[in-house]
Amino acid sequence: MCRHLAYLGPPRPLADVLTEPAHSLYAQSFAPRLQADGRVNADGFGVGWYPPEDGAGPVRYRRAVPIWADANLPVLAGLLHSGAVLAAVRSASPGTSLDEAAVAPYALGRWLFSHNGEVQGWESLPHDSEEELSAAELLSMEARSDSALLWVMIARRLTAGEPAAEALAEVVRRTRGARPLARLNLLLTDGHAIAAVRHGDSLWYRQAGDQVTVASEPVPGEPDWQEIPDRSLLLTTQRTAEIAPL
């Protein structure tokens, strides 16, 4: 399992999103409160952000070390600003690779993606003729992991022009049809909107003024956090939010 978050709003230091809040993503790496499986998230971390310049990004910074072990992050997080961020701390599933290429966020064009959960037996996940992945698509997988496979399946739909929410919902439907016990909490953003799926673990969101945050765990004492129902899809911008059952 992992913990992750996405933020849209006024540009602010990455530290305001990652490390400064009470029970921040940084704190969730070693003391998660709502995590269904695993006690720490020490197998790497990643941050993707869109620089304030129009059309820039996304940029990624990923490491295969615990977030607390990276001496560069506090300085970078204090200096870099963004109005759109997706970040994750990782607890690797058995049988997946442990290098930084396996750490979210994954990227394609303006898209950033993260998966919190596990797909058991992902190496032999059956595909029908419509879903059969080409050799080129399989070779494009950044890492040996269930998350990387899900991303290839989602990215092919985005490339074909499917809306983000439809791409996530269809991949979740097909995956849970083959692996009913799969845990599939997903975050996807293009820097303007966030599409998220809760399927098997905690996921919350908060809209406040002109900003929105979607996260595995809420900030204690901060008002207006709302829990996303299990097996639901959230589509949100800075000022709008729509939740639908999967």
Automatic annotation (TrEMBL):
Entry EC no(s): 3.5.1.118
Gene3D superfamilies from the UniProt entry: Glutamine Phosphoribosylpyrophosphate, subunit 1, domain 1
InterPro entries recorded: EgtC, EgtC_Actinobacteria, Gamma-glu_amide_hydrolase, GATase_2_dom, Ntn_hydrolases_N
Pathway(s) it belongs to: Amino-acid biosynthesis; ergothioneine biosynthesis
CDD domains in UniProt: YafJ
EC category: hydrolase
Origin superkingdom: Bacteria
Catalytic activity: gamma-L-glutamyl-hercynylcysteine S-oxide + H2O = S-(hercyn-2-yl)-L-cysteine S-oxide + L-glutamate
Free-text function comment from the UniProt entry: Catalyzes the hydrolysis of the gamma-glutamyl amide bond of hercynyl-gamma-L-glutamyl-L-cysteine sulfoxide to produce hercynylcysteine sulfoxide, a step in the biosynthesis pathway of ergothioneine.
GO molecular function, one term: hydrolase activity, acting on carbon-nitrogen (but not peptide) bonds, in linear amides
Name assigned to this protein: Gamma-glutamyl-hercynylcysteine sulfoxide hydrolase
Residue stretches making up the Glutamine amidotransferase type-2 domain: 2-246
Keywords for this protein: Glutamine amidotransferase, Hydrolase
NCBIfam families named in the record: ergothioneine biosynthesis protein EgtC (TIGR03442)
Annotated TM spans: none
GO BP: any one term: ergothioneine biosynthetic process
